[in-house]
Specification:
The protein has 282 residues and is an alpha/beta fold. 43% of the residues lie in helices and 18% in strands. Helix 2 runs parallel beside helix 3. It is globular. The termini are close together.
């Protein structure tokens, strides 16, 4: 059965009032998960409210019981992997193991310029991303203190305490469609792969390629969950929406993540969920 989740772009005006209402609506209605972006602002003005990601997820962890949640995605271009991993482990424990740690390389130039972070070239930030994934993975999964020397990060006998209640800590999600860089990293490090704005045909092709890469890494195909961040209009009529969801389900999408843009319409989240979710579960 395919799962249905929501994602919001937090930099589009998210504040505490809106976040609390959205969290309550998603939890009560029965969506599988709620994800949010991790940005200071948008590529172009005007600048809007942008509630900080880690703080917002800590609130969610302590005010919900059921749904999964996480960043989609947190970029290593301004998130230090050691500190982010420490925060993620604590939030995962607070939520009794419901955090999904979505990680990325970073891409948006404007916010990096405004706040003094080096985005760097694509090649450099992908190298930094790979190192950050190695650091995060080792800190979460290794039972021994971690020593690591890379170009961007260095650890000496590092261990995060307390250890997470969930063995291996929160699941790591890697999002993206790239065949040369992103999918190989997903095959090596990810528990969840999230395709982005792919057609059913392209998703099926990328998923098959991921199977090949997983085999090379000595991992079974079912070790990585297949999810899709879709550009589907969730406000369209329920029958049309359900038909699109079933198309993705048929080609192996295990979780479909839909965009929700109206931060002031928590009732809309409930209304659409109440129409669609029972049909997916039947």
């Amino acid at each position: 059965m395919i799962e249905l989740s929501l994602q919001i772009e937090g930099q589009n005006g998210l504040n505490w009032t809106r976040w609390k209402n959205i969290v309550a609506a998603v939890e009560e209605t029965g969506y599988a998960a709620l994800y949010r972006s991790d940005h200071f602002t948008n590529p172009n003005p005007p600048d809007l409210d942008s509630l900080e990601m880690i703080v917002s997820l800590t609130y969610l962890a302590d005010h919900t019981k059921r749904m999964q949640f996480g960043p989609l995605v947190a970029p290593f271009s301004f998130r230090d992997p050691v500190f982010l991993t420490r925060q993620a482990a604590a939030i995962d424990d607070l939520s009794n193991g419901r955090l999904i740690l979505g990680l990325g390389a970073g891409w948006q130039e404007r916010e990096h310029q405004h706040y003094g972070y080096d985005l760097n070239t694509l090649s450099t930030r992908m190298q930094r991303f790979e190192e950050g994934l190695e650091v995060t993975s080792r800190l979460l999964k290794s039972e021994e203190p971690v020593t690591y020397t890379g170009t961007f990060y260095k650890l000496q006998d590092a261990v995060l305490l307390p250890r997470t209640q969930r063995v291996g800590g929160p699941r790591i999600l890697i999002g993206g469609n790239g065949l040369k860089r992103t999918l190989p990293l997903a095959a090596r490090y990810a528990d969840i792969w999230n395709g982005v704005f792919l057609s059913p045909e392209d998703f099926k092709s990328r998923s098959a390629q991921l199977d090949i890469l997983l085999e090379k890494e000595g991992r079974p195909a079912n070790s990585v969950k297949r999810t899709l961040f879709a550009g589907t209009d969730i406000t369209q009529d329920p029958e049309t929406l359900l038909k699109e969801i079933r198309q993705f389900e048929a080609i192996g999408v295990e979780e479909l993540v839909l965009w929700w843009n109206d931060f002031d319409d928590a009732d809309g989240i409930r209304r659409i969920g109440e129409r669609i979710l029972p049909q997916l579960q039947s």
